[in-house]
Amino acid sequence: MAVPGVTNSIWMNYMGAEIRFVQGKKFRTRLAEAGDKNAPPLILTHGGGGHLETFAFNVVPLGQHFHTIGVEMLWHGLSDAPPITDAPAQIGEQVLDVMEALGIERAWLHGEAAAASTVTWMALNHPEKLIGVVYESSGGIRFKEGSVKPPLPPVGGIPMGERTLILLKDPTWQGVKDRLLMVMHYQHPERVTDELVDVRLAHYSRPSTNDAQTRYYSRMGTGAPLPTEEDIATLPCRCWSPGATAAAVRAPTPASAWRR
Question: Residue 80: inside a domain, yes or no?
């Protein structure tokens, strides 16, 4: 967490967390872990194009209330990148793999943006492994026409998936920064630090990660159809959505409510 007079870097915010690789039965996953292992487990999954550094502001503060595990998803960062069949389901299998490796029976599962589809897959297919689910910025739901306001047109008329594929073909510092500003902190651009841009550019420029991300975005939306509103209504576990602001999961204030 931030310390007055000290550079507010990713590494400074991760002080107090353990950063490591976990080899499960199926996958090798990079993760960040903090908190009392006897506390309720909370597993965080980031959005498409993210990486473990995404959770730098979250893991340690949430570790005051939970056994918090930030998972770097398949095809992202330094985690495994197997052939893609159905990405949301495969990332769900990754979560189950991590839980088994860490000896976790049940957990809260958080999903940000694209990872919401994995949260829903877990809730529908493995509710026995969940205490509850947290949706941030998305729901992974096929809404009925008229149920919600139509989404705003993509910035510049280019959908985010297509924009990311263009960036992966020629990763540049400014291109990475522009993409970050589109998906996070557009009202607070100062939070998209040079360090964060440097880290994401390093991930996108690494040949193995670039290939994995290109495959991920090329296959996005080609798996099983999203669940319907009726499917979501049958979820047999507690659900919470803090809204579409990145700051919502930073603050540990509402965490006490999650333990009920």
Answer: yes
